[in-house]
Amino acid sequence: LRDGAGNVIEENKFFENKARTRNFILLGLGFSYKHNNKTEFYANISQNYRAINFSDLRIVNQNFRIDPNIQDEKGYTADLGIRGDLEGFFTYELTAFYLAYKGKIGQVLRVDSVLFNDYRYRTNVADARNIGIEAFGEISLSKLLKFQNKNLKSSIFANFSYINARYINTQDNSIKDKMVEMVPPITLKLGKSFSYKNFSSSLQFSYVSEHYSDASNSIRTASAIEGIIPSYKVLDLSLRYGWRFLTLEATLNNVLNEKYFTRRAEAYPGPGIIPADGRGFYVTLQGKF
Fold first, then answer.
1. For residue range 112-133, what is the model confidence (pLDDT) as tens digits?
2. Which ranges constitute the DSSP H helices of 37-86?
3. Residue-by-residue DSSP string for the chain
4. Residue 101: which of 56, 131, 81, 121 has the closest Cα?
5. Number of other residues whose CB lies within 10 A of the CB of residue 91
6. What pTM value is reported for the model?
7. Using an 8 Å Cβ cutoff, are 96 and 106 in contact?
8. pLDDT: which is higher, 269 or 240
9. Tell me: the pLDDT tens digits for 10-32?
């Protein structure tokens, strides 16, 4: 254990030899009903299993510690939905789902007993459940508006999801009913595509709502290894043109030069937030011979 200046305060060595054997059967059941050629209803339920791996067990970092008794995750997933096509110009899908976790692996904020520094503690936090809906729809403008030119195609789409993810069945009041970390409640994507002969383009807007980076739902910490992740929005544009054996592609990411971040690091180059890339542009020329 080192202090902020890098001086060794405490040194411990642990020697161990562990082996874990697993035998299990995962079951699932699915149902699908086609009301007609354009509408389908479906329902599924299946068991989930996630085994712990080496990175779950061992890490050398003073800002991150692992529960030596961490266990595998178990649970199940159930969903119910409908998908279809309306008059050939509108395709859609709507799904409601429920994810159950038993002993979900997550991160909680703890305080060191020697230096009183904040650190991440990875363990089986508690049971958790995710309830949500996801909706997708795409409208073909060329079919809706009945374009006379068959070389001209255009469409718009939207994808929306709402997830309520919380920790349950725990006596730890610091995390009871708290939101599961790294699960944005709202995610929205809007896009438009356009093509004419050998030219095509697409524009996509993404929005991700505010969420937390640890099970304690910390707003901010002095070390910045945990805290809230503010909402952000990103706009991307891509262009493509083909001519004979050549294809030219250009992409402009983060058109609005949004300043945001999606995660926090506990070590290099942190601790602290990891800023996302700003506006970026690249061009690709491809030839097929």
1. 766 667 777 888 889 999 999 9
2. 54-57
3. -B-TTS-B-------------------EEEEEEEEETTEEEEEEEEEEEE---HHHH----TTEEE-TT---EEEEEEEEEEEEEETTTEEEEEEEEEEEEEEEEEEEEEE-TTT--EEEEEEEEEEEEEEEEEEEEEEEHHHHTT-S-TTEEEEEEEEEEEEEEEEES-S-TTTTTPBPTT--SEEEEEEEEEEETTEEEEEEEEEE--EESSTT--SB-TTSSSBEE--EEEEEEEEEEEETTEEEEEEEESTT----EEEEESSTT-SEEEEPP-SEEEEEEEE--
4. 131
5. 17
6. 0.83
7. no
8. 240
9. 666 666 677 777 888 899 999 99
Tell how strand 261-265 and strand 228-229 pair up. Answer: unpaired
CA pair distance 284, 278, nearest whole angstrom? 20
- Render pLDDT for 213-244 as a digit per residue (tens, 0 to 9): 888 898 887 777 788 999 999 999 999 999 98
Handedness of CA 208, 214, 216, 220 (dihedral sign): negative
Question: How many angstroms separate the Cα of 145 from the Cα of each of 91, 201, 275?
Answer: 16, 19, 43
